Amino acid sequence: MKIKRLLSVAAAAVIFTFASPASAQEFSDVTADDWFSDAVNYVTEREYFSGMGDGTFAPSSEMTRGMFVTVLGRMAGIDRSQYTKSKFKDVQSGMWYSTYVNWAASVGIVSGFEDGKFLPEANIDREQVAVMLNSYITNQNITLTPNPNARESYSDESSVSDWAKSGVALMRASGIFAGDTSGKFYPQNSATRAEIANVIMRLSMAINGETLIVPTPEPYSRSSEILDSMTLEEKIYQMFYVTPEQLTGAVPVTVAGEVTKKAIQSQPVGGIIYAADNLVSDYQIRSMLENTSAYSKIKPFFALAEEGGNNAPAAQKLGTASFNTMYSYRNDGAARAYEIGTSLARGMSSFGFNQNFAPVADVWTNMNNTMIAERAFSSDSNTAAAMVAEAVKGMQDNGVIATLKHFPGYGDTDGDANYGTAYTNKTLEQLRNCEFIPFRKGIEAGADFVMCGNINVPALENCPAAMSHKIVTELLKDELGFNGIVITDALNMDAVRRYYTSADAAVKCIEAGCDMLLCPDTFSEAVNAVISAVQNSTISESRINESVKKILDVKLKYGIIS
Questions:
Q1: What pLDDT was estimated at residue 367?
Q2: Helix (H/G/I), strand (E/B), else coil: 468
Q3: Spatial separation of the C-alpha atoms in residues 346 and 318, rounded to whole Å
Q4: pLDDT of residue 180
């Protein structure tokens, strides 16, 4: 390494009582523990939804306007043969959604846009869902009664568009929409397939007279307060994790004075990772970190990649506890990994570091692999998992944030991402049965960061893993249940910079679901690209807010900010 939306913010917190029907279809990306599993079973059993044709449901994928109208048409049980005449310029006959869209236009559920288009491929947002559901309920002569558990209003209801206010109010008052546990609705956020499935199930329950439980709003959080005070640029800078050289332009950086002060006040990055060249002495490193912290409006994460073995700058330069490669301890038991994590954390924190880019959660199964090799705890996934989990606990019990790396697993890759493409030919099932196991155990142990590697997995998506929505969101977040901060591996590695500009890489990683971007090849280009992407609506500001709130929450948890 060179140095979910309609209810998306807290969809899983929407609580309701419903007996699970027998599964209408088994999907590889839906498990019984997922908050949306009942809803997926419900809508697929009734054939309101279909899968994606490859055995998946794609719960985190955003729903388009054409998809949503198709669901409404299937619920209504329309005779599609009556609606073959196109109502919109961009709805061509023969498209899978065309007759459903034509029906919805004919009965007044949709009206399209002033230019005569419907935009069937555009993502549908929450307030659009509310308006279409309101019209559908009217068309179907459905009467919804007020839900005694419903909120009187959302805390952000003033941001609902005028044309959507009545629809949103009806859905809220009837309990179809619950919002999140902080009492927000986020009206302009896109809706996912899982969220729409949940809404359709709740609508059916309401029609059948079943009680929908609405979660109680939580107190306004400190992270939300900080987030609301930040400019767009400040938020975006929080998503970047850079070296002190990238921040200041000086080489090497061993002090933090006026140059650092000016740099971090104009570029308030979320984290800084240091290397051996930045470390000179005890006093020097403490002074550098303390000054950098004092100059910062929002104090950054300060990290080292202190793995042990040859990857141990603090041990080599500052005299902290020294260890052999982690692989050498593979037969010593999980308790040994806890001791190592504890020693690493205590040494790092004594100088002011609050994050370690470790432990390595890869499983070394390919003996020709030089990228990981003896950096891994074991060539056995269960042994590695037990030791990774204890290393995480050892670090975080002693105040240093652990970072699991490198998802989805480097231990069986060909090639070295530092010098070109690194890839694995494993299937998803093979990854689940080996590489995912230590990450799952590390997540269960409470790891607050997961680093997504610059690994290509052609069986899933042929691009660096950090740019893959399938890998970052559908697998790491949805399947493994990781709710913390997803950080990329260094984006200045050849596996990225040979094939992507800094601008493209930054935007693609955020679109995939990453929360922090580590060491882009050209820092300013990457930052400006993300700012532009928000300004031109390629990335929504709510998507930025989602990541920055996570960053602030972790900083509050560890006392980095107060």
A1: 85
A2: coil
A3: 13
A4: 74
Is the C-alpha dihedral spanning 444, 445, 451, 453 positive or negative?
negative
pLDDT at 521 over 60: yes
How many domains, the chain?
2
Same domain, 110 and 56: yes
- pLDDT tens for 285-294 read 999 999 999 9
C-alpha to C-alpha distance for 139 and 142, rounded to whole angstroms: 8
> With the CA atoms of 420, 421, 422 and 423 taken in that order, what torsion angle do they form, in degrees rounded to the nearest 10?
-170
For 109, the domain range is 8-207
- In this structure, the answer to whether residues 194 and 249 fall within a common structural domain is no
Which CATH number characterizes residue 366's domain?
A: 3.20.20.300
Identify residue 85 by its one-letter amino acid code: K
Percent of the chain scoring above 90 in pLDDT = 71
**Phi-psi domain of 340 (left: phi exceeds 0; alpha: psi -120 through 50; beta: other):** alpha
**Residue 562 or 407, more confident:** 407
Query: In 10 A of CB 262, how many CB atoms?
Result: 12
Ranges of H-type helices in 107-150: 126-139
Backbone angles phi, psi at 514, to 5 degrees: -70, 145
Q: Is residue 224 part of a domain?
A: no
Does the residue 2 lie in any domain? no
Is the confidence at residue 554, as pLDDT, over 60? yes
pLDDT of amino acid 14:
32
| Contact assessment for residue 448 and residue 554, using Cβ atoms and an 8 Å cutoff | yes
Same domain, yes or no, for 432 and 335? yes
CB 400 within 8 A of CB 345: yes
Nearest to 405 by CA among 346, 447, 366, 457: 447
The pLDDT value recorded for residue 156 is: 79
Contact 503, 528 (CB under 8 A): yes
pLDDT, mean of residues 181-190: 78
DSSP H helical ranges for 397-470: 428-433, 436-444, 469
What pLDDT digit, counting tens, does each position of 315-369 carry?
999 999 999 999 999 999 999 999 999 999 999 999 999 999 999 999 999 888 8
* 422-423 and 455-457 beta bridge pairing: parallel
Do 89 and 161 lie in one domain? The reply is yes
Residues counted in the chain: 562
**Where among 189, 207, 225 does a domain terminate?**
207
Judge whether 223 lies within some domain.
no
- Per-residue burial over 408-425, b if 16 or more Cβ lie within 10 Å, else e, is bbbbbbebbbbeebbbbe
CA dist., res. 30 & res. 51, Å (int): 11
Half-sphere exposure of 176 (CA within 13 A, CB side): 29
DSSP letter for each residue of 491-557: TTSHHHHTTS-HHHHHHHHHHHT-SBEE--SSHHHHHHHHHHHHHTTSS-HHHHHHHHHHHHHHHHH
Q: What whole-number distance in Å separates Cα of residue 154 and Cα of residue 179? A: 7
First to last CA, the chain: 31
Same domain, 168 and 297: no
DSSP letter, residue 474: I
Q: Is the full-model pTM beyond 0.85? A: no
Q: 348 with 304: CB under 8 angstroms? A: yes
Is residue 229 included in any domain, yes or no? no
Q: Which of 326, 317, 332 is nearest to 282 (CA)?
A: 317
